[in-house]
User: Fold this.
Amino acid sequence: MADRPGRDGCLGDLETQAARPLRKHDRLPEGLVCVTLFLQHQHPLGLLDDPARVRGRDRIRAVTRREVVDGSATHEHSPTHLSGAFAVVGTIVRTGVVILPDLHWPAARGRWVEAEERGFATAWTYDHLSWRSLCDGPWLGAVPLLAAVAAITTRVRLGTLVTSPNFRHPALLAKDVMTLDELSAGRVDLGIGAGGTGFDAVALGGPAPSPAERAARFEEFTDALDLLLREPAAYFEGRFFTAIESRTYPGCTQQPRVPFTVAAAGRRALRVAARHGRTWVTFGPLAAEPTPQEWYDAAARQSAMLDEECATVGRDPASIGRAALVSLGVRWAQESVEAWDDFCGRVADLGFTDVAVHWPRPDDPSLPGPAPVVFEEISRRLTA
Assistant:
């Protein structure tokens, strides 16, 4: 039969896939990827890293990987140009990589170029003044680093994961982000969060804000960024921030503004994600080393709360991407290829559309990230 996997598990005819769901070891023909589309909203097309997670009787369309990578599939394969029922159930559509800014530029340059060559859809960096055990070593500023990366890459989307109001003012950040968007030809995603309670929170003087103050400040910070990035001439006055006749000409390359990826775990922050985010990102529970069940339970609760907050603000919950960030210390999810596959499958079943993995740090026993063999396999699948 045409849809029966051969000895290598490769499906010969995707058009026959309506007859059954993909099975665990099914592989797509070389050079093809599955692209999934939501009919209820405009969702950015992305790479399907684990096609075995597509279920049900929905038709699957295969397009060349290059069409997805260079964006040529975006309009041709939009809902207005496709017939038949397309749906996404349990599908990871994008895989991103997080690269810590802890290398001198000559070494960092090669790593960012390699990230693009490996086929990652997104490449992120932290935006801290310093961080944990790495506070006394090299640590580059996120904005100038991403500006340099924008000049040496052409495809991969770039962003902060995440920027916070701990030491950022929305008027200055809006100017910088608008500039990054122009330098990258519209490849920037702004990852934002409320910020933690560590060094960043007190570096500019004064006590760290209380949890309630931090949540309120984040709401205002995001409202201000939304306005200042949409309007090249704007005025904003709030409890925490003021911007008088702020200018962000010529405006964002991406319209109406650079998309936001909003980090959120609590209800107030999830409401910010529902109001302003193209994507919501979580690293699971706040515990330092959560067990697998603790991680999945927390992610499920957060995703359910996001659905509720979307309903509160009148937004279709399916219109927001959901990203799972695998923290450096979550060893159980990235210690083997099998563990990684299980993690991706579990979060996909929870409705997540994106995953992000750190670049391996095998020489750092406290912050190792994925096993190198796992990282190599993730990369191999992205370019297979």
